[in-house]
Amino acid sequence: MKQDVVLNSLKLAEELQNKVNSSISQKEKSFHEKMKKLLVNPKNKVMLIELLDRSFRSKDSSKCFDLIKKTFDKYGVADFFSPYEKFLLFAFLNFGKLVPSISVPFFIDHIRQDTKDMVLDANSSVLKPHIENRRRENITLNVNLIGEEVLGEGEAAFRIKKYEEAIKSDFISYISIKITTIFSQINIIDFDYSKKEIVKRLSHLYELAISEQKRQNMSKFINLDMEEYRDLELTSEAFKEAISKYPDYQAGIVLQAYIPDSFKYLQDLFEFSKQRVENGGKPIKIRFVKGANMEAEETVASQKGWALPTFDKKVDTDSNYKKMLYFILENERYKYINIGIASHNIFEIAHAYTLISQSNALDSFTFEMLEGMSLQTSFELSKLHELILYAPICDKEHFNNAIAYLVRRLDENTAKDNFMRYFFDLKVGDENWEIQKEIFLNSLKGIEALDNTPRRKQNRLEPVIKSEISKTDIFVNESDTDFVLQNNRKLANLIKEKYTNLDAVEISAMGNKALHSDEILEVRNKINDKLIAKIGLASKQGISEALDMAKNSKYSELSFEEIYQILSKAAEIFRAKRGELLGIAALEVGKTFGEIDPEISEAIDFIEFYPHSLRVLQKQNPKTKFKPKGISVTISPWNFPIGIPVGTIVGPLAAGNRVIFKPSSLSSVTGYEICKMFWEAGIPKDALIYLPTKGKMVSECLLKDDLVKFCVLTGGEDTAYNILKENPKIVLSAETGGKNATIVTKAADRDSAIKNIIHSAFSNSGQKCSATSFLILEDEVYDDENFKNTLVDAASSMATGDPFEFKNKIGTLADKPSDKVKKALSELKDYESWALKPEFINNNEFIMKPCIKYGTKKGDFTHMSELFTPVLTVMRANDLKDAIDIANSTGYGLTGALESLDEKEWEYYKENIEVGNIYINKPTTGAIVLRQPFGGVKKSAVGYGRKVGIYNYITQFLDISQDEVDVNLKENEFTTALASLNIDKDTLNAAKSYVYHYENEFSKEKEYISVRGEDNLFAYKKIKSLLYIVDEKDSLKDILLVLIAAKVSGVKTAISYKDENEDIKFIKQYKDIFGIEFVKEADFKDYERIRYHGDCNEIYKKASALAKIIIRNKPLLNGRFELLYYYNEKSTSVSFHRYGNLGARALDFK
């Protein structure tokens, strides 16, 4: 860079800043003073964002007052308010509660008034004179009809209509639009389809603009805004294809300098524009911006485990901004393209103006700023050159739409390194001026060495690099596939080509040899009925062969270290064969790639996490011994044909057990591919046996055998009951479905809620045990016709069908609708109605579109029944308490979600909802290993309450023992009282171990994996009650340890015994210390969990009839493992960011 250009740029910057400071209006001075105070205390911005975000959500003025008051109670009245505003706030907070119907609208109007310069009133009587006034000042307004991405095609049509009205108006000459506001069903895996739809809609608007230009004899410019990184390629390609049809019409697009890739896209767009001009057409225009979605990009990257797609240093963004400008000025490229220089940075403006003037290129450039920000600067600049102000507009009724824009503006302009943060008190030569000057100069120096290679480089086409050592020392979640990236979409298309033309295969039940089969299962394509596979189902003889095979396997003799190495290789194989798993699962089950891909990531997580978890437990508990139990049976479902089978196979395998794997008949081909991958990794075929067979055969012929030590089931509650009926003593760990509710209160962000509900209810055709199958709306929301219409629009817009048609967001059902589903679809109470009627595409019972039933009441069939189809039932509740009561009344307890911005409601919900996985402002589906360990309570689980994807899960597959006391001991008043009983030392030390682990493990809420914008908390919740049936062989030590563990855990405990021996007499003598009761005839259903160390079959039958798995192991000396029996596990996942902004958490976010 020539020194004279730099010096001239700095000189012009000083001139502009001095003019701004000398000419600034009193109104803008007041605004600057307010902004300075806003920036002094970080809490000020947080408070302002909360006020903006929460004041407008409800039509109930009392609720709004409550939310506003809570915000001021939390942060106080910020000092950026003027004395008059503080007086108004004092009056509002002290007297407004008496008449909220008057005070709240007044308060809200005042907020709108405060933001009117940044978000203009869309009313033409206000907007038209403002635009005309700006035009007289040599300023054009770029009108942005403010709004976030649309959820349905009806909403998209409405937005397009609004764009049409703007284009047809006689005073608007320049508008900005976004691809996500004109098409709701972008599915990036089907890039061509998404592009085609966007091009069609863009073309319509371009044609209208051309027509209106001729009719009105005035310019009608359409600018295509850029949003997140995910939209970059699609926006650019759609723009080029659409505008190519209209060589004589000029339109524009935006590039964001904080994305390194933008330079490549600039080069491409320039070549496109140059060819267009050389062919006689008009140049395109590109608006250069720095980028305003950094917080959202950081949040997505953190939550997805993807690389941040932007520069991580602000100075690099500044360098790229200049690099993009230099490229256009070099070799007179500006003759073939128009550029908008969008910036509020005085140094950037002066530098660009200096360079452009020197190149005699002013005719190819405009300068651009934001309406309402730095007005005097815009006036001074408009005297130098044509100026465009980006002007969001919004009517009073839709002011909610402005919140996201205002939050992003606040984030951008208050960021640590942003020029605007310092502008409001900037004077030439002062400290901040010199700092900004230095940043400018450093950005010039950084141009030459700037690295513009894309930061996000995931490429599923490349071979997986094998790790040389086991990765079990550190656990990191596997990232899903980013289909925004071209190479990953290429993989999807290669898989589509292979698996849509796949020849049928023949598969047999298999261990280290084929097992005897006596029946063939045909697997057929749900779309065209084409044969996929013939599977030999194992006979009784085959099951017997499998048992013998497992019995004689030497796998359990391997060391855990040897097993770790095998499973580490298995993880690499699953990574390498992600494509094959995508293809076979989509073909067999009808699930979309978007749904299958996270399953594969989860499967890899399971393979790496369970060995890791055991290693961690071994290191933390050096005096504890861990041994395999023996032979296990895993029975897996079809709805997660990869993730769940792998998890329930690898958990027992990691513990050294042999596994007989019974896949679902609806996903047996996928199950076979999974086994092949484990076998390839080195798991012996007699240690993992593939056993497709009839479900009844498993209960009757396999689970009755004493060789089988435990069973892992994911399936219906009926299956669990049948297993326990056949073998009451089987140790069963089962996840048995759910009937899950999302509750939406009047304090919710309703658009965000609908987005989450749509995903929760209809992804994978509702065939998830965690799916939202009924929606409970607080009265105000239930009566909100806009909410209902938006929900129906979003659901009805979802493309449904063949999973290999990538535009489809919903695939097929895995099986035809059951009688239960048919009843739900055919029966309608007098007070119920279909907001969206059931529909099967082409009369194919496997292709069911989403449907929504309104008006269901508590206790109705569709309220109480798990349907496993895309059927959403909508119910009314008086308030949150009533809604939780409705949700809890189904008897299930798997997942639940609350949509609300009121933290007080969060706390009430967390305390009272009876589910294993809680979600707040999130979908009810999509649990990630260790981030949100998964598993339910009540009818949703059978077993000891241990979730998948957490350190405790593997413990149920191990025989755990101690020959000596735990190393971690702690005394308290209770252990001191125990010492006075003269009990043996081991028992007393065990009590101290229980106390230690209670205080350090079981009483604490933990976050194992920290991601931006979310809390993911794991905690224990004590069981409600325990029945301990004392066996005649139980020693006093056994009895004491059970009672001590219950006491430490705070669990209400009853003791039942047959004969009163000396040990019982001793316990009775000190029953008050333990807080227990004695019962003779106990009703098992009155107790959440039962403990019994004996062999009486009748006791096991009685418990199994109620799906209760008896705790039969003698108590352990180590509280880390013994106390597990006295708790259920709870996961809570809270999304607290707003449009990427972290709110109060930003004040202490690590």
How would you characterize this protein structure?
The chain has 41 helices and 33 strands. The longest helix is centred in the middle third of the chain and has 28 residues, at about 595-620. The radius of gyration is 33 Å and the shape is globular. It has four domains: about 5-40 and about 115-445, Alpha-Beta Barrel (TIM Barrel), CATH 3.20.20.220; about 470-735, Aldehyde Dehydrogenase, Chain A, domain 1 (3-Layer(aba) Sandwich); about 740-925, 3-Layer(aba) Sandwich (Aldehyde Dehydrogenase, Chain A, domain 2); about 965-1130, Aldehyde Dehydrogenase, Chain A, domain 1. The model has no long low-confidence stretch (mean pLDDT about 95). α32 links the parallel β22 (about 850-855) and β23. It starts with a helix and ends in a 15-residue tail after the last strand. A nine-stranded mixed sheet has the order 21-22-23-20-19-24-25-33-28, sandwiched between helices. α1 (about 5-25) packs across α15 (about 375-385), α13 crosses α18 and α28 (about 750-760) runs parallel beside α30. By secondary structure, the protein is α/β, with parallel strands linked by helices.
